[in-house]
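Handout, page 2. Input:
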Amino acid sequence: MSARTGAQFLRGLNDGREVWVGGKRAGDIVDHPAFTGAAHALAEVFDLQHRAADACLMPDPETGEPINVSHMIPRSRADLEKRHKCLERLAEFSVGLMGRTPDYMNVTYAGFAGRHDEWSVNGNEAGAENLVKYQKLLARNDISLTHTIVHTTTDKAKGDAPTGHDDVQLHKVEDTEHGIVVRGSRILATLAPFADEIAVYPGHPMPNAQDAHALSFCIPMDTPGLKFLCRDSTSVNTNRFDNPLSSRFDEQDAFVIFDDVEVPRDRVFIDANLAVYNAVMLTGWWPNIMHQTMIRAQTKLEFAYGLAARMAEAINASQPQAQQMLGEIWCFAEFARAAIQSAEQGAYEYGNGVWFPDGRPLVALRASLPTWFPRVNEIIRLLGSHNHFTAPSAAELASPVLRPLLDKYLRGANGVSAEARARIFRLAWDFCGSALASRNEQYERFYLASAARNLANAHLYSDRTRANRLVDRFTNEDIPELKPEPERLRAAG
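Output:
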């Protein structure tokens, strides 16, 4: 099999997986009211790769069959530029609202496989070999993959990773004839109802955990013992006029329970090996995956700028305050674009012949986005004010009684019709004020850790070589006034 179509993707979802939503186990994922909009939206993503084949498809290096470009193991700056075009096309489909379209994990595992040498340390050669084989399987079967990498929070005082053994957290129970048995829980499997398989890998080091917690593997969603508990759906209905975004882009998030799940031996990449677990994420993972995440974020910011500008035009909001707020969103989008371009231009080989972007501008961008996105939502709310609540529905616009009144009293400025105005403000509210918008703002606030943690890490791991040199010029300067008086007199002498 090579790159799949949307129909092929949808056929793979109803496999008997144990997905719960609203207190009930979901049966048919494709037609379930909570999932159908996003399921069909993701099917469109799979179809999009064929419509945009020039940007999104490439031949498999070994078989020649078409695979998505996001599976590429980049070997040059040109490869990263090629991947950028694919990632941008995919992000544009959901205007950046779906953070976990399959290309996210495709890029992740391409990076892992490219740096398999990092995984083969401390006696983990077999795990690294399994990882390389799995990445080829992922690409050639066009698997939709979700992940769960965050430890469950039961007591924040205990920290963000297990200390010693913690039976709440995912851990290995035993070896079997065919693999290993794991038990415990993890968060947060975004895209879970719409994935074919789920991945477990390190999110950050666990310096004080027992080896049993140090695991990495990938298994199908219908593996016995896997349970997914979804948050409340924000997909309120499928009416694309009334809910243009939430009707189709709720990618879902799930709490994952591993109830004595057997993982086949050839799907295990780290088997209770803490040294490997704590080492593999420390070099190229961040800049590689942030290439995808920041292209997605920049697309979302640019959409927000266009949407806010269209709102202002619809009601002729040309006051200086409105123009200033529009310029603020533009600056966010432009800073994001420039950071990505800088990261790509500064790309270099990270080892094993693999090229990733320069991580510095992407780290700075990642630390800024958790505050930028809430501010963007605030600006759109301020620009729209009460107009967000005077956007008639499709049913009201279709009413022969109401339509003439709406055309007269709820039209926009400069010839904008009542229907066009309603489309703009319903789209804006779905972006900044709906249940989907609230979820997405929370997602962005803590995406790849909070702003506070990212800012602290940006400082702790920064290269201060030049900054120190600039400061040292003054702090190390030979200043005569600091010398004892006799020595000053001799120097003047």
